[in-house]
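Loading example: each entry is read as two labelled lines plus one structure line.
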Amino acid sequence: MVSPTDPESEREAFVDAFRRLEAVPQARTETCWKGIEDRVAKHNAGRWWIAVGLAIAAILVAAATMRLRAPLASFGVATGPGALVRGSEAARVDARGTASPIQDEEPHERVPDVEPSGNAEPVLSPDGPLDRRQDGERGENGTREVEERPRALESRASNQAFDVASARKVQAPLAVERGRKTRDGASALAEETRLFRAIRRDLARGEPVSALAKIEEHARRFPAGAFERERAVARVQALCASGRVAEAQRYTADALATGSHGGALASTLASACAPEVRG
Amino acid sequence: MKLTSIEPIYREHHGFVWRVVRRFGVAETSVDDAVQEVFLVLHRRQSELSVSLADPRGLLFGIARKVAARVRSRESARLPRMMAPLERDLEQQMEVLEKGRVVQHALDAMDEERRMTFMLVDVEGMSVPAAADCLEVNLNTAYGRLRAARMLIDKAIARYRAGEERERHRGESYGS
């Protein structure tokens, strides 16, 4: 048997009690997993809609581009590498792929040299640099863009999740505030513990009336204290021991209705008021 | 990659992540969301699992620390008390509750470095080198913090025992 004064063993006993205090109920584990599944499903559904939207946009831009070639060709526009494009009545494609007529005297737009590979055809894009596409590669580019977008969103979300600087900034002030609050909290907890032990002593001595008086005092002074649930159990025990079975039953029923420790009180009622409850 | 591939890790380490998130000061009302966020991040970073298959707690701890920081900065966080599961024997339950609260309270009063070192080694059973790796400190620093945390816990236990002894000698009661 381990010596009770062995600090390491005593610490281990207290830590073991702490582990039991902090054990996570299985129901909570299951609920949390369902929450994760729901969030992943919603995220994937969102990505699917983004992918569909981008694919449609890519198709529209490609279609508008193809429509633009005929008018350009009719004005003798050479669409090979290094060609100058003269716009007079040529349609201009806006960012959404819809064509609108341009004014006369439009400045010439130079098409920069394209790498001499395949059948590269430069495409006018008034809002940005030219979008070079190879024959047969348009669909692939559109697809690539769609695939990369969700990864970019994820990356931003991940980066937000890993903001080490903000983690460090929060650490120190919280510790100071916590220290101040827990000093007051420590004395309140000690006082609450002392009073609750007195309740237990009265119950153990068969003095339920005295226990009930202390329970009322405990409830008044520590309404949301550390022993809230245990106080409810002690109240049912004291009521049963005083012969106030109907009151114990009403109290338990109310707790069941409001979801406040109802299950625990019901089992206490069954054991503490057993002969009366069984009738 | 599929969510089901991390389910075994979730089942085994959900409690660990839950406790770590709580010890980082996330409020009771937010802890479930924070835990979900940790495993969602893990799901997105599954390719790193091959590095930490032996013990993914290091990776989980790192993710949990950052998620907890983000959650805490969004809301006013406090270290909430835990409600112990009720046991059949109220006396036994009370003993668990009181002793557990002594440790809980002592941890709440510590600075975060010591608290998390103690959590990982003495509560979660990690080796000191693994804990040092999680906390991104060298081994000597981890040992130093663990020693300091243990001293604080021992002092809290001694105060608790002294209080019990005083009550026994005085026969303290409230109006009886």
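The helical segments of chain B are 7-23, 28-44, 57-74, 90-109, 112-123, 128-135, 139-170.
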